[in-house]
Inverse folding.
């Protein structure tokens, strides 16, 4: 039975919000298990590559049969090498390394505010600088709310750094990860990239660069890793959820959601993620919800909703 466009859009929205929300909770929970941050990034890229690399190779088969030179990285990426390297560096490699490292220092509630909350801030500033995209008054007010919300969450942990706390490290890593994803988003818009092909390109870049280098370093015991000692079931779960789920499935459903609801309404829907993931951290992980987190969460969510309104 063929689904109606409304049913497809609604299903895509539910799947996207569910994966984005659970990503924060599961990534934080993974920090208390066996794998290290780069181990999880390795499995994420491996899982995504096992789906996207064969898909990308099949996608370009017609051009290759006609003798055309397509893509880069020995035909694994459907995009030119320069764009593949830039987008892959920020949208896959650095983002995964920074995000997963942050969960080993800061709680999921902080990630709920600082990661999705920082995206509109960094993206607006980068779009203004690179794309000359003006910032409307409504968006400026929304960005101010986001900055205040981030300061309420990150500022408190930064003040405790002098007491020996390490939460501020995770907060900075979350903000840096959001910045890298914003750079990738602006690159997609700057070069007019197809989202599916862009996802294939950034995954192929990480597969060609990060996987062999990290695998060799682990094999020769030059860096710490728990890949050899972690349970096989845990590694399978991370590869499937973080790679296939977070990269492949949510990437497709997010684009389906934009196709039906449009970019503005889609952003309003994803504004549910900070609140839901913060509540999930409390319910599933037993994390405390302090007053500054509640206030920061409210400001960030309001800033996202206000920023996507029409001027």
């Amino acid at each position: 039975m063929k689904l109606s466009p409304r049913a497809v859009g609604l299903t895509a929205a539910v799947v996207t919000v569910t994966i984005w929300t659970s990503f924060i909770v599961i990534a934080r929970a993974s920090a208390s298990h066996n794998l290290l941050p780069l181990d999880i990034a390795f499995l994420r890229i491996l899982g995504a590559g096992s789906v996207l690399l064969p898909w990308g190779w099949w996608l370009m088969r017609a051009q290759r049969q006609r003798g055309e030179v397509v893509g880069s990285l020995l035909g694994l990426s459907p995009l030119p090498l320069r764009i593949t390297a830039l987008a892959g560096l920020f949208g896959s490699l650095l983002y995964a390394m920074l995000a997963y490292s942050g969960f080993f220092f800061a709680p999921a509630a902080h990630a709920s505010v600082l990661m999705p909350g920082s995206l509109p801030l960094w993206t607006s500033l980068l779009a203004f600088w690179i794309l000359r995209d003006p910032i409307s008054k409504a968006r400026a007010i929304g960005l101010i709310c986001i900055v205040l919300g981030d300061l309420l969450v990150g500022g408190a942990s930064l003040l405790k750094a002098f007491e020996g706390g390490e939460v501020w490290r995770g907060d900075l890593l979350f903000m840096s990860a959001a910045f890298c994803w914003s750079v990738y988003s602006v690159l997609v818009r700057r070069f007019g990239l197809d989202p599916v092909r862009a996802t294939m390109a950034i995954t192929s870049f990480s597969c060609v660069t990060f996987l062999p280098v990290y695998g060799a370093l682990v094999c020769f015991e030059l860096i710490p890793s728990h890949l050899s000692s972690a349970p096989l079931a845990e590694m399978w779960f991370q590869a499937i959820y973080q790679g296939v789920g977070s990269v492949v499935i949510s990437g497709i459903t997010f684009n389906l959601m934009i196709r039906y609801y449009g970019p503005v309404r889609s952003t309003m829907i994803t504004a549910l993620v900070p609140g839901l993931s913060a509540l999930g951290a409390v319910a599933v992980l037993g994390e405390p919800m302090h007053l500054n987190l509640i206030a920061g969460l409210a400001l960030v969510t309001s800033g996202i909703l206000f920023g996507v309104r029409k001027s």
Remarks:
- The chain has eleven helices and no strands.
